[in-house]
Amino acid sequence: MRRILSLFALLTMLLLTGCATQQRSDTLTTTLTAYASTVRWGDFQSAAQFLDPKIRAAHPLSDLDIARYKQVRVSEYDDGNGPVPAGEGSVQQTVHIGLINVHTQTERSIVDHQTWHYDEKAKHWWLTSGLPDITQD
């Protein structure tokens, strides 16, 4: 009887772990989709809300950053193959972003290497690599 109860407890724990993993995966998908949509619309101030709160507090968007982001329109957001695991509770994703300068109408592309970390306490994925660097050549 004790063995059956131990087996039942183990199976229950595995099932709950599987549910938690699926929930984490679903949350990642939802977060990445929302972030991509926000960047595609060029709303970088809202995109900053996806940053880890500690990073956002330590490096708030300056007026110059906001002015630079307003000088471009996003023409493409290609996340390729999507995120890949990068350690416990972290994923990385490489995104190609097409930008159009609103003043000159010239288009260029940048590569954004994103790192996302799962906050177990908040049950939330946070961007830890920062917003796309639109000043790169």
Could you walk me through the main structural features you see in this protein, from its secondary elements to its overall organization?
By secondary structure, this protein is α+β, with helices and mostly antiparallel strands. It has one domain: Nuclear Transport Factor 2, Chain: A. It has four helices and five strands. It has helices at residues 2-40, 44-47, 53-58, 63-70, and strands at 72-78, 84-85, 90-101, 107-119, 124-127. Strands 1, 2, 3, 4 and 5 form a five-stranded antiparallel beta sheet that branches. The longest helix has 39 residues, at 2-40.
Helix and strand element order: HHHHEEEEE
Biggest beta sheet attributes: 5 strands, antiparallel
Number of structural units classed as domains: 1
Overall 3D form: globular
Mean pLDDT rating: 87
User: How helical, in percent, are the residues?
Assistant: 40-55%
Distance between the amino and carboxyl termini? 68 Å
Enter the CATH topology name.
Answer: Nuclear Transport Factor 2, Chain: A
Number of strands: 5
Over all CA atoms, what is the radius of gyration? 19 Å
The number of helices is 4
- What's the architecture, going by CATH? Roll
User: What is the level 1 CATH name?
Assistant: Alpha Beta
Helix/strand structural class: alpha+beta
**Parts with pLDDT < 50 across at least 5 consecutive residues:** 5-19
Q: CATH superfamily membership, which one?
A: NTF2-like, domain 1
Work out the strand percent: 25-35%
